[in-house]
Amino acid sequence: MQTPRLDAVDAPDLSGSTAFVTGTTRGIGKEIALALAEAGANVVSTGKTVDDSDSELEGTIGETADACRERGVESLAVQLDVRDEDAVEAAAEAAIERFGEVDIVINNASAIQLANVADLPAKRFDLLNDVNARGSYLVARAFLPHLRERDGAWLLANAPPVTTDRAPGKAPYAWSKLGMSFLTLSLADELAADDVGCNTFWPVTAIDTRATRYFGLGTEDDWRHPRIVADTVLEILSRDPAAFTGNAVYDEELLREAGVDDFGPYDLTEGTPAPTSAQMFDETFSR
To answer: How far apart are CA 54 and CA 47, in angstroms?
Structure first.
């Protein structure tokens, strides 16, 4: 499947910027990293996988870094478990030391398991929260002093709008993802005086990723290419972080506002996928 391109999306010129992205081995994180590189940003590719030779999962942080370099930018691969506070601090220091400054930080790394409370072991509940909510907290906190000093920096998270107070059948996962949102949107106020744009982004439809396929979340008729999420990130970064902050955006809505009126190139098959991702946390969502 070819990565879709839409002329209606005007990518910002990110030359001279450096982005630190978590979870870039595959899927949405990798697509975001490549889109940033295409726009001219240097990329710090992070994740746990450095060797996939003995794994069923394809992709490494080094391969993503290499693909970024092929797009004409510099890239640094840093092995990182976002649950490890010392490792997060070291990764932030390594990124800043290598590039001098980091002005885009994106919390993308996530764990997923859709289960009700009775069926989810406590250790899996801890994993969801340690990777999603706590991991985003550690990454954000590690970069806060640095972002405050930058002229027009960004802190983004791949997380849904906070529109619900319950999620039966998937409450543990919802709790961890909404924690990412709550943290990021709260930082919009905490960093307002420093002009750091803090926003979340979330797909309306399910996205074709390893997790989507593994957990059987629909079929190809229900999925879109991860490029739609990457293009959403580019659209956010085309704006003024001092003015565009504290927003929880859906990909379709933001891209439509930017002038995209044909989402067909993002679809894996003909026909418009249902808004299953948005409805995961907001049953009342409709186009």
So the answer is: 17
What is the residue whose two structure tokens read 């405050």?
148
Tokens 């693909």 sit on residue = 67
Average pLDDT over every residue of 255-260: 96
Query: 18-277: CATH homologous superfamily?
Result: NAD(P)-binding Rossmann-like Domain (3.40.50.720)
Q: What is the distance in angstroms between the CA of the first residue and the CA of the last residue of the chain?
A: 26
pLDDT one-digit tens code per residue, 209-218: 988 998 888 9
As a whole number of angstroms, the distance between CA 61 and CA 118 comes to 35
Compute the Cα dihedral for 57, 58, 64, 66 and give only its sign: positive
Domain ranges of the chain: 18-277
- Binned at pLDDT 50, 70 and 90, residue 57 comes out as confident
| pTM, 2 dp | 0.96
pLDDT band at 58 (very low <50, low <70, confident <90, very high): confident
Given the residues 173, 214, 250, 266, select the one marked as catalytic.
173
Known catalytic residue at 173: yes
Q: Do 162 and 185 meet the contact criterion of CB atoms below 8 Å apart?
A: yes
Beta bridge partners of 202: 250
